[in-house]
Amino acid sequence: MISLWSRFWFTPSSPVDLGVGRLFFFAGVFATYATEDFSAWGGVSDAFWLPLPLFTLLHLKPLAPDVLAVLQVVWRAALLLSAVGLFTRASMVVASLLGVYLLGLPHNFGQTYHFDAVLVIAMCILACSQAADACSIDVLLRDHPAPRRSGEYAWPIRAIWVAVSLVFFAAGLAKLRYGGLAWITSGNMSILLTRALYHVSDADPLTSAGLWIAAHHWLASAVAAAAVTTEVSFPAALISRRARMVLVPAAIAMLVAIRLLMGPTFGGFLIVNVFWVPWCALVVRAETWGIVRRRAATKPAAVDSQSAPAPQSSHSSFDSHHSITH
What we know:
Blueprint: H1 2-10, H2 15-32, H3 53-57, H4 65-84, H5 88-104, H6 117-127, H7 137-141, H8 155-179, H9 182-185, H10 188-195, H11 209-214, H12 217-233, H13 241-261, H14 267-271, H15 279-307, H16 314-325
Helix pairs in contact: 2-4, 4-5, 5-6, 6-8, 8-12, 12-13
């Protein structure tokens, strides 16, 4: 068991997976919150302040709107620097610390959201990792040999996997714990799909197809069963590559369906899924495909040059004719 545990966390891995994941993750977070204005929270009355345990422990409170405006500019700059890999370690630390405060601030006014906590966890994990050893400007500026495969490039990705798996598993477990099988077999999903059209979430559904699904009890129950099954079984993606190939796309499809049919925005949550992609293997396949294409393009020319008859001079032709006639 100890060997399996160590192999899961510290299997020697290429820095490419972690580096590319870092690039897309921080770029995605920047794109998601590029227009988000956190400064408005500084003007909310203290009467609505219901701090989370973390904010209470650290004695954190809303700062003045002007200060929050400056902090969010610094945070976005840190996100960009973390994505491109310039001063990466310091940038990731700043991005994670300010992310804890800015993303956590809206949760302290009586409403807890479900789509950004995993982003904070992922940023803190990356801030403690060597995610700058590939696909970064820091690597180009350093005159060092390419890093070897190491377990240091495996454990951050595995930690993010575990965080995502716990989020999905906890959601599915809560449905079964408090609703039981009735969460699937009753008209619960039909009610949720219908209620979503009444502006009850942070965003409205992008389509009214949810009403059509809600009108068919068997279809609504099938949607509910698919959601619970995906969530409860998602931890299997941690230990099985085959399960990963099924459950990760299923979870992504579920989040997209929630946005389309029910409204809640899980765009930020989708960003974390970049760490499930085997980027190093994709790079190798792309290089192999390019080599095969180049060989296929040069092969006909080589064959033609080998099969074409050698040209003969007029003297050799005359000599051959003369010897035959003689």
